[in-house]
Recover the amino acids of this structure.
């Protein structure tokens, strides 16, 4: 079952705390369900966060560089993790085919709250943005 509101909340550096979340079908659903290509790394990042929330491993694999995608990736089996929200802090295209997205994803595992603060690297190959890897920050 797909959500009405998009789990990514329409995260962007310009988003205000009281902004209403976009509809899933109008936001990440068009990439995850309808096969549209995210036009930039930030929208790919949002759709990948949403795929984690939904446990959509095939989408995560399809948007991950073959060179760095973990062999044992399986988002569908992680029932312990509850994703709570996404904040995009920065999106920079370093050149036409490379970009970085800094984000904070909040989640709970085993009743404990956590934050994943990462600066992710993306590459565009044959018109498709792909996640390469990221640096996790303790800040």
């Amino acid at each position: 079952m797909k959500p009405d509101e998009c789990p990514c909340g329409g995260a962007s550096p310009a988003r205000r705390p009281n902004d209403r979340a976009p509809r899933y079908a109008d936001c990440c659903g068009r990439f995850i369900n309808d096969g549209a290509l995210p036009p930039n790394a930030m929208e790919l990042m949002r759709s990948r966060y949403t795929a984690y929330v939904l446990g959509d491993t095939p989408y995560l694999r399809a948007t991950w560089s073959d060179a760095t995608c973990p062999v044992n990736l399986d988002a569908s089996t992680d029932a312990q993790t509850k994703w709570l929200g996404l904040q995009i802090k920065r999106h920079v295209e370093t050149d036409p085919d490379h970009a970085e997205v800094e984000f904070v994803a909040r989640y709970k595992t085993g009743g404990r709250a956590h934050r994943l603060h990462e600066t992710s690297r993306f590459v565009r190959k044959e018109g498709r943005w792909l996640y390469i890897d990221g640096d996790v920050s303790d800040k």
